[in-house]
């Protein structure tokens, strides 16, 4: 068992990362030891990254314990780089974390400064001079490379940079040479943000945290008006909106709503969030209050102006879309669905269940098979997602069974209508699909049957009858009303 993390008190008594636990107890018998939990550490880092979204939308993980924040164009909002650096460290320390931070023009340079001289800001274009006196361990490379550099007499980053790049690459590899160039500011490697920045953002900072529902609702309404005004200037409407609530103790709660059509009115956005907040199983807990509320449009569409005053059908569609949005916000996208017809011969795949919010135009224009007036239903009202096998008591090659067992019950067939043959799609057969291995590639003979008690079923026989051998099985496809 080895030590993988230490605090300042442990370092003061001579403990270090990688030391066996037995040696550490010999040095300091009274140390407190906790089992390592890499998953919990990563989850805590993700929560910290969510909280850092208040400073910039471009936040990336630097596992196992680091974060990158791209603050280009954001520092002036917090009083400059020095003030922003102090603010981030102070707020995270208040939450109980030990934090080191630095600012530089490249991520690798900022990481090296954080390891060796936290709190340093490298001026633009002076990264090489800033990191030159730092020891080589600040590069964060493997121990074998660090020991090799020291054995070669290269104890600082400046010493390594003074050697020719081809010499360094020949000894330690091209990856180390590329890292050194990034640390020196000679090239840049952009960070990979956790999520793409939203298209439009409106946020409200509070000098004192707020906790009342009235204040939160009024703030969301005001932010919705600002967001709509910003989108209207560019002819956009929101399809997905995210409301982020930043608590004073560092917790962040995000509520997401979707719109079937591009939302262009503030009252529509306000109504969707009211429905969503009222339907939350875990209510929005303000704790000690929220000091920042942000409303962002993470997905937008171009708004096409249409005449709606005299078009009754357009107004009806708008009302239906608004109702669907409200139901989806309250119940969830997967709970409000619609059926769409599919071009297939397989009955259980004749329709597809999709969220109606994203497929309302397809649902309104879908073409379903027409049934003549007075014609009895040819398909059962209840269709099984997967056909259920039945056990045939008396099997006849060219007709339905006289009896069958299904779900531990025996049924005697009194009336039969059929067969109706449904052949597999020819395009599946053309691909060389083996019918013996794929049930959907085998022909089916369907029968509408009624048992002695008046229950009506839709059965089918899979496979074809040959004189030499019986090559078919029976399945229950659905039940008539």
UniProtKB/TrEMBL annotation:
Domain DNA polymerase Y-family little finger, chain residue ranges per copy: 201-310
Reaction(s) the record says it catalyses: DNA(n) + a 2'-deoxyribonucleoside 5'-triphosphate = DNA(n+1) + diphosphate
Protein EC: 2.7.7.7
Enzyme class: transferase
GO biological process: DNA repair
MF GO annotations: damaged DNA binding
Lineage: Bacteria, Pseudomonadati, Pseudomonadota, Alphaproteobacteria, Hyphomicrobiales
Cofactor needs: Mg(2+)
Role, per record: Poorly processive, error-prone DNA polymerase involved in untargeted mutagenesis. Copies undamaged DNA at stalled replication forks, which arise in vivo from mismatched or misaligned primer ends. These misaligned primers can be extended by PolIV. Exhibits no 3'-5' exonuclease (proofreading) activity. May be involved in translesional synthesis, in conjunction with the beta clamp from PolIII.
Membrane-spanning residues: none
Source organism of this protein record: Afipia carboxidovorans (strain ATCC 49405 / DSM 1227 / KCTC 32145 / OM5) (Oligotropha carboxidovorans)
The gene coding this protein: imuB
Domain UmuC: 3-114
Name by which UniProt lists this protein: DNA-directed DNA polymerase
Record keywords: DNA damage
